[in-house]
Amino acid sequence: MTKPVSKKCPCGGGKYAKCCEPFHAGTKHARTPEELMRSRYSAYARGREQYLRDTWHASSLPSDFNLSDDNPTWLQLQILATGTHGNRGYVHFKAYFQIDDDIGVMEEQSHFVRENGRWYYLDGEAVE
Ligand SMILES: [Zn+2]
């Protein structure tokens, strides 16, 4: 059985077609770290591996990045705080996921950098 693909955007921002899909399709580029964060979360949820590579800063992209390794079912994204300072930005978020019957949450502060007008994910640190 295959699950029907929801029309809702995984990030919680409304319809996928009007929310993160244009970013994934390359017809729009994220204007803020929050948009990039949301679209990257949705890319994890939708298995958009190439988008994750494309929006990951070259200096920190793991050479062996592979979405099929240990990608849980992503349930919900919660943005707690975000800000920019020049070409640097951050997003503090919680992401809820499911592995088998277990629900987990990761809380992280992600760092973003803007180069040539485009935002990229740089790195993140776990928030305890
Ligand atoms: Zn979205």
Automatic annotation (TrEMBL):
Q: What Pfam families would the database entry show?
A: YchJ_M-like (PF17775)
Record's superkingdom?
A: Bacteria
For this protein, the record's InterPro entries field holds:
NTF2-like_dom_sf (IPR032710), YchJ-like (IPR023006), YchJ-like_M (IPR048469)
Domain YchJ-like middle NTF2-like positions: 32-124
Q: Which family does it belong to?
A: Belongs to the UPF0225 family.
Entries under HAMAP family matching the protein: UPF0225
From the Swiss-Prot or TrEMBL record, give the protein name: UPF0225 protein EGC76_04440
Write down the species. Pseudidiomarina gelatinasegens
